[in-house]
Amino acid sequence: MSEDQPHHIGQQLRSARRQRGMSLRTLAGLSGLSIGFLSMVENGQRNLDRTGYITALATALRIAPTELTGQPFASTGLTTASAHEAVPALRLALMGLNLGLSPGQAPPAGQPMALSARVTEANQLYHGCDYGILARKLPNLLADLHAAVEHASPSERPELLRLLADAYHPACTMLLKYLGYPDLAFIAVTRAAEASAELDDPLRNALSGFFHAHVLMSAGSPDLALSRAEQAANEVEGHLADPDAYALLGELHLIRATCLTQDVHRSGARRTGDINEHLAEAAKLAQRTGETKAWHLNFGPTNVGIHHVSLNTELGRHGHAAAASAGVRPRTLAAPGRTAAFHADLGRSLAHLRGRDTDAVTELLTAERTAPQRIHANSAVRDTVSALLDRQLPSRTTRELRALAHRMGLQG
Predict the structure, then answer these.
(1) 5 near 411, Cβ under 8 Å?
(2) What's the distance, CA 51 to chain centroid?
């Protein structure tokens, strides 16, 4: 492995293990992974691109997963760098804004219609992976929403609370999760939950549970994430009179399936079976809802198809992931983030299949063209790119791969 790849997870793993005075044998016993596999990971002979393995190792070492992945990453790209540069102001906004505390400013003019348009724009920026622009816009948007809520009449307050929650998630929560700031994402999802709690709306509470599960999973607690998602699903199942409830229930099946990919202590067959059950239920619900943007999400048959690829990739069933990609048209969603995730996960799986390295690079480059800011911040993609750099590839593919590595900050 090249010495100029400072974010290679194997190097981070060796450093963390040695700092704790832990042997490979002890780490293997605590994580459930083999000594041989861990040795190869540390020596750069195997890439560690499965979230479940990273979570198991972080738990065994008693550290956050981000300490292994190296997130948040410094980027050589101006747009991605601008997102990280905007995080300090966003951090202060998250810490300083709270329901019941006056934001010290007058409410913005033209509310709530103008605020609704700004919240819609923020969510569109998130799904478009324009993280730099979104991160700069969020502090003022959140401050204006809090001011509007605190000065609202009783009849206006519920709608403004819904807008506030919709600004916190997915715009704020998922932005911070994907940039590598799970602690800040947790603050955002907590602020959203406070707004939803006042509404006393079971579906809104369940939506908070969905995003809460996302953040818990990224923080390395798949068990708590699964529990929270199951609680949210139970809430939704009691309120299916609302047509949008079916889309939310479908998303909760998908997040539960994702949580299960990280359960490395469950047998592979049982884990795969449980995940497939959730996928089947989500597919049934998707047939009922069709493609929908309910809750500022992207539930429907296409997103279920994308999850077939991503979940099989996380399970290490790379041939199944490649097969599942056939017929999936992610651009149907007009959501660059989901399209990029599809190509990135497919590329990761192809990198594990004999004779598919060139195809893997093609998919990773497609993912980057679609949503560079999201791909540059993806630790699994970064580790896959690092692994591919050591392989014999056609000269043109090698040049393209090295250029990608440079843009991701993996090579000087």
Answers:
(1) yes
(2) 11
